[in-house]
Amino acid sequence: xxxxxxxxxxxxxxxxxxxxxxxxxxxxxxxxxxxxxxxxxxxxxxxxxxxxxxxxxxxxxxxxxxxxxxxxxxxxxxxxxxxxxxxxxxxxxxxxxxxxxxxxxxxxxxxxxxxxxxxxxxxxxxxxxxxxxxxxxxxxxxxxxxxxxxxxxxxxxxxxxxxxxxxxxxxxxxxxxxxxxxxxxxxxxxxxxxxxxxxxxxxxxxxxxxxxxxxxxxxxxxxxxxxxxxxxxxxxxxxxxxxxxxxxxxxxxxxxxxxxxxxxxxxxxxx
Length: 271
Description:
It contains 9 helices and 7 strands; from the N terminus they run E-H-E-H-E-H-E-H-E-H-E-H-H-H-E-H. By secondary structure, it is α/β, with parallel strands linked by helices. It has one domain: 3-Layer(aba) Sandwich (Rossmann fold), CATH 3.40.50.720. The protein has a 7-stranded parallel β-sheet, sandwiched between helices. The longest helix is centred in the middle third of the chain and has 24 residues, at 112-135. The protein is globular and about 55 Å long. The model has no long low-confidence stretch (mean pLDDT 91).
């Protein structure tokens, strides 16, 4: 077994992935191998500084994590760096999907290439990386493999059909991998949480729209506010503990009751 254990985080340069990388380095003493496409270079450099401040090692690997080739190359680089049986935590935090309608006849109608790319990045790549990690014997004893999802799979937002479908596929992949990897001692789960403020979200929406989004979520969430990436990251750290070892193949609800409140708002809209 490798003397040092690592967290492999896809989408580690910003948002939830970045928060998870920093948290598990500080609270669990894991080194971090982060994979990103280079879109948020300043944020990636900040993640490197924050992880280094915990005293743990961090390597940021630039590549396309949403392809079989990217997974193979990333696993090879990690093997050369950390050695076999070194990955204690694998987090799939890729936010790379296309928004649009399926049948609109307008510019926002999704193209087949957009559908394909969305599924590769947000669903299929979980399998690509699991295969690469198993093939290279990178998984440490009792490793944790974690996908991230959101409540869209049980609700409806008009232009997120491709992303929602990919997340639904990811949930099925998690269940099957949990059965396949369970006898080896590993645990595969899916963490579902509500909207959090990330650079990707700020890239999509204008400041005015973001303000409206935050106000809407403050009404939806029983706590009266949005969840934060730090809260998600802290719970991921909890999932590394022995006390939660029995979680396997689960979709863990970390929405704070947002969907319950959403139903209430539909039935009793604010006046």
